[in-house]
Amino acid sequence: MGYEPLKLKGERVWRTYVGGRMIDRLHGKEQGEDGHFPEEWMYSVTRAANAGREEIVEGISSLDDGSSRTLKEVLERQPDEMLGASHVKKWGVTPGVLIKIIDSRERLTIQVHPDKEKARELFHSPFGKTECWHILGTREDMDEEACIYLGFKEGITRDLWESCFEKQDYETMLSLLNRIPVKPGETYLVRGGVPHAIGAGCLLIEIQEPTDYTIRVEKVTPSGFQIDDRMCHQGLGFERMFECFTFEGESQERTKEKFCIRPQRLSQDRGDRYELAGYGDTPCFRMEKLILEGDTGLKGEGGFSCLYVVSGKGILKTESRQYPLEKHGQFFIPAEAGEYTVSANEASASGGEPLTLLRLYGPED
Question: Which residues are within 8 A (CB) of 135 and not within 5 positions of it... i.e. 6 or more apart?
Fold first, then answer.
């Protein structure tokens, strides 16, 4: 008999920007409120880095079983069984990914993250912060359509970019990036070194390398929050932080073609299964979408995975237990999990909201 799935609770995390109302609604709070907790970190053993909040431990996921145990504690106690021996040998006792729900009431500040090479050089870390966004929804009560800003336009130089930063010329900096309207169901890969900003009104799930290295070039958020200098340069200083940018420009059309990943349909007996981001796109992580009907058998496959319930209801069955599946449910499937079955309930199978899951994986071993 294999190891049982772990039902987890997400951890709301403080950020410089404002949002979070749609996350409240995922938890059944229909009114919801926007504030400085616009993210929920899931399956996380990564601690958030927030200036002025160094004494607060936030970002570490806990088990949803009435105990005070964290996922980090469980993995450290049984690393090979939970993560897989080959994964632990290569990456250590970490999932190697961080998964978040992000809900933006305002545009995030323009930022960049280091790739693996720069992360090793500048932060002495084996992980950079390549990330991937899967758009879950957009707000309908915004003045502008939901969008993202992704990558430099053609011809942008470091001298020009630094000049805009020194002047804190936000309008010009934003104009130097490609603005791309987004819609639910789309998936974008954001490699380390590529400047970007999530626009206002986006609800998305993000899978990324497990760090919080975020270089910000705006010192004030769109809503007027003053950002601490260290939150901008992450301890590198304002000169060295520009080493994290890759100054390679593309047209808007080429940028979308390059970074918007088309889903690939995979075989599935009962329902549909799609690869949203695979190891061919990046070795950092993998993400699948499952739209299920009836009973579907799954197994650990020798490596761990994370199940997130996007919509619908059902049951996750193992040899000895049953776990209800409901919207926003979060389960960690150990590497040494036995076979288990996911069953869509009758409402999902008879025309109601379908049982839709995201299955997320760590880095390629």
Answer: 146, 182, 183, 184, 185, 186, 187, 188, 202, 203, 204
- Reported as a single tens digit per residue, the pLDDT across 235-271 is 999 999 999 999 999 999 999 999 999 999 987 666 7
Give the list of residues 6+ apart from residue 153 with CB closer than 8 angstroms, or none. Answer: 176, 177, 178, 249, 250, 251, 252
CA–CA distance, 311 with 325 (Å, rounded to integer): 9
Q: What is the pLDDT of residues 3-51, one digit of tens each?
A: 899 999 999 999 999 999 999 999 999 889 999 999 999 999 999 988 8
CA angle 311, 314, 316 (to 5 degrees): 115
Q: Is the dihedral of CA 219, 221, 226, 232 positive or negative?
A: negative
User: What b/e readout covers 136-166, taking b as 16+ CB neighbours within 10 angstroms?
Assistant: bbbbeeeeeebbbbbbbeeebeeeebeebbe
Is residue 12 within 8 A of residue 34, CB to CB? The reply is: no
Rounded to an integer, what distance in angstroms lies between the CA atom of residue 17 and that of residue 170?
16
Burial 337-356 (b: 16+ CB within 10 A, else e): beebbbbbbeebbeeeebbb
CA 99-253-285 angle, to 5 degrees, is: 20
How far is it, in rounded angstroms, from Cα 315 to Cα 330? Answer: 13
Amino acid at residue number 320: S
State the Cα–Cα distance between residues 348 and 222, nearest whole angstrom: 41
